[in-house]
Amino acid sequence: MFFDGSRYQRILDAAFADGEGATRTIKRTREPLATELAMIYQVREGDRLDLLANQFFHDPRKWWLIADANPDAMTLEELLVPGRLLRIPKNRNP
User: Fold this and answer.
1) Residue (of 47, 54, 51, 36) closest to 83 by Cα position
2) Domain that holds residue 21
3) How far is C-alpha 19 from the geometric centre of its chain's CA atoms?
4) Which alpha helices (DSSP H) does 1-94 contain, by range?
5) Which are the contacts of 44, defined by CB distance < 8 A and separation ≥ 6?
């Protein structure tokens, strides 16, 4: 369930068959948006996406901009492996 006004509200559902033949429906929440690159950042031990978003965008709630700019990582944990190079996009409004 997404809150009213969520950026995921208008994203289409995707259906797939699981191993038992049942159809499952999910949201395609990881559809990356085209982003203009601002810089590359090397992850350090203890980094968190909300703190990085606050550092680069002055808003910790914009952590999803970093996640969307790095679609090869499927989980937040994959994004924050020390030494990984993160694409940091230019800031944009909601």
Assistant:
1) 47
2) 1-31
3) 27
4) 49-57, 63-69, 76-79
5) 82
Indicate the DSSP class of residue 12: P
Q: How far apart are CA 41 and CA 60, in angstroms?
A: 17
Other C-beta atoms lying within 10 Å of the C-beta of residue 49:
18
Residue 14 contacts residue 26 (beta carbons within 8 Å):
yes
Residue 94 in any domain: the answer is no
Q: 26 with 37, same domain?
A: no
Rounded Cα gap, residues 35 and 48, in angstroms: 20
The model's pLDDT over 27-40, given as tens digits with 9 standing for 90+, comes to 665 555 567 788 99
- Whole-number CA gyration radius for the chain: 15
Which SS3 state, helix, strand or coil, does residue 77 take? helix
pLDDT of residue 94: 58
Query: What is the count of structural domains for the chain?
Result: 2
Q: Say whether pTM exceeds 0.90.
A: no
Residue 73 parent element (H or E): none
